[in-house]
């Protein structure tokens, strides 16, 4: 009986303690990385809607901030005659079998509104399989940045071969549509000439674009004409942007899909290699180690690999990928180690506030 | 026609002293003494318990017939019946062979044993819940066939599918009333939010019980039956359960559960009960490091109280259930360098705070014009707050984050009213007619205008008709009118035929429907990559369900056995899926487009031999597989998943200990996926969620009269995650493994039970 009483007292005591022990457990003392002498840049991507493209130059530690809806087309300033679309705005285009803008009317665009639109393409995945879906990837520039993969064909020296393009100008940062245009691209001297108008217009405008070889591309906005976008080609290394990439959907289709928090690199002599933290710690990585790596000039070497986005039902947390950092070789053959330190704003928790840390590797 | 029992009316006049019930052995005719005999008048008057004397007789005095009776004896099968007329009875008891068959109520006209029911009803008794050390519904169902569990680590919830149909179509009821949760009124419930401390038993009916319980029960109904009575004047139970979480245990790790429950006969017609439970799961660090945990800590408080008043011919009770749950999801530390180079890391923490209160008032009894009635009103108030903060890990400062959807309050308020009357039209025909009104109000951040209402009014009727000696037929019909999608007429029909040797065949047809959820009707979500809208013009998903069940008791030597064979087929039309909006190509919405089918067969085998009780089951569930219409013709229409389960209990009398083993094999779940082959081409392949074995082992023992103890190992095979190769590429793929559990854990449960006559 005595044992029984002890057992009862024990149970009652434990139950009482259990009910009263309702306090939260204290935060474990977090491990805080020490202060660093590295260069730190808070890229001004602009928050949730990510309205900006941010071009970063490591050697001058500067960033150039450009609204991603401030331009439409980039005209290649090198030897080829190529035109790129504003990929961050998810612009799409296709040629029609006409060469005179004044002959193009809304009839030539029938059906395009429900197809040649980034949201319509995504929406079509939920319906019966759309026959046109495999074509969608031809309406955008190939995401590796190769000039051969642009949606607009090489501008021919023979004017009659340059067809009219119907262009969906994509979306503004707030998601609203930027409208539709028709345009035709021609060579003009050593540069370009563009004829353009709104779809139903009976007349058109013309603009001359000269090649300025200090830049990768020279940019045009349909409303404002020539505009400044990316800095001179030796004056930036990487760029934060929204990026319309190809997303594999099924056996037959990859579709254009806009990725947030994407990082592209300068096509002019910038090469980047990825390093696994399991091979080298960022702190211990020196110039000597940089020679073992394989470098890539693919526009999207970093891409979206640097970050993790929580998916419904998974226990992964949105933030930087802690398992990798990068080595960047710039156009002056400087080597930098680059680490993404954060993805979210430390107060509001919103996306579009990335921070990077980088150090010059002393040769 | 009795399934396991023969009952003979003794055609004598009732004696003035009351009614005599005589109990005899069915095989030998011997009188049986020591039979515990419980009775409950249908009018709800005070129930009683007696023990038969050496002449095998129980005498009832001043008892108001009809009564529901139940016997219990170690050597004989439990027997339940409704005795309608005030007269003497002779009851033949069948020597025990299979486990006790207790009363069930789900879908029944009168409480009766499961084997008498026209439906196939599975019962999980309190004893089994206790022997498992199960605290919540998720644990209690962990080895039930045809039920597959899933865990959502992101929001800490636990769901199920039944007969291969998703949890949106499984309706969970508390005493017949839908248990409201974040996603629905009874369906799509989070099982870990359903604690069982005041639950007497769980009744599971597979197949749509739409005539009685309305929408959202396409797959089936799980009805939790709470305690509403005690066998003694005072019963006090104090319990404590300490459990490791995987290998983690300590004051800030593991799982700590305490409970107190008091039941009291307050006065002759009054009974009261009050209970509290504290379930403190401290989370599981697992392979996470630093602040985050693989399984987030979850703390629950649950309280419930019941007051029952039983005047003559009636029984009225009020019950309150309350749940308070806090889930803390601590984020990882993110570096954040200030311009000075100083690091002030921060973390994004989430908290989910849930409160649920259910008020339920119910009356039952008899009226001059009805042989039985019941009526209830209930109000459920559910609120879940999602709170997200950023925390500076140096200064400790916390601030609410501001991204879209970070802060949210979901609410679900439901008024339910229902009732049914029962009439015996003749000896052969019983009629049930009832009504059901439900008023739901749902609120939350991504719901159009922040709040929406749905009302549903229904009447239903069914009858049980004894055709000849051996056949019971039960047709039913429900007419429902819903504010969001109009009027529905829902039929069902069941047949039960009894054969020689107590074998029973049951056939069931039911039409079921799932009402579009508020999210499907009124959802609104727009960001840079998504434009998703609800569709107010959705119609319900309709299903046809067909099933059959055959049970046959038999003997092998001394061992008493029962075998059961089950078949089911479900087909769901107009299943709601996401599709491109017809009016706006850039938007997606919910549309009635899909088709889904499931098909299954199963065999169950129970056996009892001396001190050993076993049951084994096999089931084979096929899920219809729809990839896209072009490719469909070349591919298998169904993928089959096997399931096996087994329960073994050995009563080791010499040391007063029961040994229990619970086992289940959940087979691989296969589906078609798109993947890239060696040549870099996309192709259709078969992916699968790996199968796994689940094994629990427990020992239960009573000591010092008042103490119960259970020692156990849960998940003995240490399953944590299973591989999932069934994921197509893309930004929204969930990952290559599926969480099942945090691994092998050990528990001890101690209970002190005081019973005062």
TrEMBL record, chain A:
Signal peptide: 1-22
Keyword match Signal: yes
Entry keyword set: Signal
Cross-referenced Pfam families: HmuY
Keyword hit for Signal: yes
InterPro entries linked to this entry: HmuY
Name under which the protein is recorded: HmuY protein
Naturally occurring in which organism (per UniProt): Roseivirga ehrenbergii (strain DSM 102268 / JCM 13514 / KCTC 12282 / NCIMB 14502 / KMM 6017)
From TrEMBL, chain B:
GO CC term, one of those recorded: cell outer membrane
Record has Transport as a keyword: yes
Membrane topology: Multi-pass membrane protein
Domain of life: Bacteria
Record key words, sorted: Cell outer membrane, Membrane, Receptor, Signal, TonB box, Transmembrane, Transmembrane beta strand, Transport
Keyword hit for DNA damage: no
A Pfam family hit: TonB_dep_Rec_b-barrel
Domain TonB-dependent receptor-like beta-barrel: 301-716
Record's subcellular location: Cell outer membrane
Protein name in the entry: TonB-dependent receptor
Family recorded in the similarity comment: Belongs to the TonB-dependent receptor family.
UniProt domain TonB-dependent receptor plug: residue ranges: 116-221
GO BP annotations, alphabetical order: siderophore transmembrane transport
GO molecular function, one term: siderophore uptake transmembrane transporter activity
């Amino acid at each position: 009986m005595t044992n029984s009483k002890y057992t009862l007292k024990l149970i009652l005591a434990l139950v009482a303690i259990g009910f009263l022990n309702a306090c939260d457990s204290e935060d474990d003392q977090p491990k805080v990385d020490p202060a660093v002498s590295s260069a730190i840049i808070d890229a001004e991507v602009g928050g949730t809607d990510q309205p900006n493209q941010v071009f970063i130059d490591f050697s001058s530690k500067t960033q150039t901030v450009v609204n991603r809806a401030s331009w439409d087309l980039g005209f290649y300033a090198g030897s080829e005659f190529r035109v790129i679309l504003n990929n961050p705005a998810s612009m799409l285009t296709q040629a029609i079998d006409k060469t005179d803008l004044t002959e193009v009317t809304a009839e030539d665009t029938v059906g395009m509104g429900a197809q040649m639109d980034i949201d319509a393409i995504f929406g079509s995945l939920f319906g019966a399989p759309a026959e046109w879906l495999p074509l969608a990837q031809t309406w955008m520039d190939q995401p590796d940045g190769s000039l051969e993969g642009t949606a607009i064909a090489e501008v021919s020296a023979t004017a009659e071969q340059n067809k009219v393009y119907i262009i969906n100008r994509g979306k503004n940062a707030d998601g609203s549509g930027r409208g539709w245009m028709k345009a035709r691209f021609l060579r003009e001297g050593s540069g370009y000439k563009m004829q353009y108008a709104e779809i139903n217009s009976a007349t058109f405008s013309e603009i001359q674009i000269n090649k300025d070889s200090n830049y990768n591309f020279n940019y045009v906005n349909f409303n404002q004409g020539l505009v400044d976008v990316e800095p001179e080609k030796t004056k930036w290394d990487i760029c934060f942007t929204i990026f319309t990439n190809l997303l594999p959907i099924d056996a037959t289709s990859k579709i254009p899909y806009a990725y947030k928090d994407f990082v592209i690199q300068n096509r002019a002599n910038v090469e980047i290699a990825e390093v696994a933290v399991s091979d080298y710690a960022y702190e211990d990585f020196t110039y000597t180690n940089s020679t073992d790596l394989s470098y890539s000039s693919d526009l999207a070497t970093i891409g979206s690999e640097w970050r993790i986005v929580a998916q419904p039902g998974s226990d992964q947390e949105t933030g930087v990928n802690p398992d990798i950092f990068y080595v960047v070789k710039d156009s002056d053959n400087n080597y930098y180690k680059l680490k993404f330190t954060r993805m979210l704003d430390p107060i509001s928790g919103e996306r579009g506030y990335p921070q990077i840390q980088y150090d010059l590797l002393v040769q | 026609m009795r399934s396991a029992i023969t009952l003979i009316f003794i055609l004598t006049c009732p004696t003035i002293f009351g009614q005599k019930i005589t109990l005899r052995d069915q095989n030998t005719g011997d009188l049986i003494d020591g039979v515990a005999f419980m009775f409950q008048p249908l009018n709800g008057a005070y129930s009683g318990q007696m023990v038969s004397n050496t002449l095998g007789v129980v005498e009832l005095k001043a008892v108001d017939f009809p009564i529901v009776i139940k016997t219990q004896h170690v050597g004989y099968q439990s027997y339940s019946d409704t005795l309608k007329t005030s007269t003497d009875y002779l009851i033949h008891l069948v020597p025990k062979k299979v486990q006790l068959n207790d009363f069930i109520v789900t879908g029944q006209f009168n409480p009766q044993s499961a084997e008498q029911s026209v439906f196939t009803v599975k019962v999980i008794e309190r004893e089994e819940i206790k022997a498992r050390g199960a605290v919540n519904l998720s644990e209690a169902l962990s080895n039930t066939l045809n039920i597959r569990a899933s865990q959502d680590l992101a929001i800490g919830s636990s769901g199920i599918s039944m007969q291969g149909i998703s949890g949106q179509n499984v309706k969970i009821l508390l005493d017949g009333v839908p248990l409201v949760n974040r996603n629905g009124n009874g369906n799509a419930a989070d099982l870990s939010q359903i604690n069982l401390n005041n639950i007497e038993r769980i009744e599971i009916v597979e197949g749509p019980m739409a005539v009685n319980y309305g929408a959202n029960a396409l797959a089936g109904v799980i009805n939790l039956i709470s305690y509403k009575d005690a066998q003694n004047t005072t019963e006090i139970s104090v319990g404590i359960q300490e459990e490791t979480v995987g290998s983690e245990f300590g004051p800030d790790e593991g799982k700590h559960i305490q409970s107190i429950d008091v039941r009291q006969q307050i006065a002759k017609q009054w009974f009261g009960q009050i209970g509290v439970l504290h379930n403190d799961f401290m989370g599981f660090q697992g392979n996470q490091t630093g602040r985050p945990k693989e399984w987030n800590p979850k703390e629950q408080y649950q309280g419930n109280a019941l007051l029952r008043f039983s005047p003559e011919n009636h029984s009225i009770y009020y019950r309150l259930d309350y749940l308070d749950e806090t889930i803390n999801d601590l984020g990882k530390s993110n570096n954040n360098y200030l311009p000075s180079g100083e690091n002030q890391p921060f973390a994004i923490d989430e908290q989910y705070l849930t409160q649920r209160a259910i008020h339920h008032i119910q009356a039952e009894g008899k009226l001059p014009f009805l042989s039985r009635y019941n009526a209830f009103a209930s109000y459920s108030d559910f609120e879940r707050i999602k709170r997200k903060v950023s925390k500076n890990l140096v200064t400790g400062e916390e601030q609410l984050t501001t991204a879209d959807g970070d802060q949210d309050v979901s609410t679900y308020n439901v008024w339910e009213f229902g009732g049914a009357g029962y009439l015996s039209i003749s000896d052969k025909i019983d009629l049930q007619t009832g009504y059901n009104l439900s008023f739901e109000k749902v609120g939350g951040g991504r719901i159009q205008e922040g709040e929406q209402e749905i009302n549903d009014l229904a009447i239903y009727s069914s009858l049980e008709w004894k055709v000849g000696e051996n056949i019971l037929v039960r047709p039913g019909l429900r007419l429902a009118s819903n504010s969001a999608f109009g009027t529905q007429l829902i039929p069902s029909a069941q047949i039960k035929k009894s054969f020689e040797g107590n074998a029973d065949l049951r056939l069931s047809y039911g039409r079921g429907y799932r009402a579009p959820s508020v999210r499907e009707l009124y959802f609104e979500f727009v960001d840079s990559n998504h434009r998703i809208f609800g569709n107010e013009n959705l119609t319900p998903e309709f299903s046809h369900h067909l099933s059959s069940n055959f049970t046959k008791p038999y003997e092998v030597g001394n061992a008493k056995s029962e075998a059961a064979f089950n078949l089911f087929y479900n087909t769901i039309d107009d299943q709601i899926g996401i599709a491109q909006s017809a009016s706006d190509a850039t938007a997606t919405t919910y549309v009635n487009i899909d088709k889904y089918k499931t098909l299954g067969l199963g065999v169950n085998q129970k056996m009892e031999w001396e001190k050993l009780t076993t049951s084994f089951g096999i089931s084979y569930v096929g899920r219809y597989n729809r990839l896209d219409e072009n490719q469909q013709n070349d591919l298998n229409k169904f993928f089959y998943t096997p399931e096996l389960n087994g329960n073994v209990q050995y009563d080791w009398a010499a040391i007063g200990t029961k040994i229990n083993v619970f086992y289940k094999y959940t087979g691989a779940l296969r589906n078609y996926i798109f993947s890239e082959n060696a040549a870099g081409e996309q192709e259709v392949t078969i992916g699968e969620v790996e199968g796994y074995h689940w094994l629990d082992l427990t020992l239960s023992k009573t000591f010092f009269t008042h103490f119960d103890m259970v020692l156990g190992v849960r998940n003995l095979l240490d399953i944590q995650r299973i591989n999932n190769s069934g994921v197509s590429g893309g930004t929204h793929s969930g990952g290559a493994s599926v969480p099942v559990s945090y691994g092998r854990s050990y528990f001890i449960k101690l209970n002190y039970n005081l019973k005062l006559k």
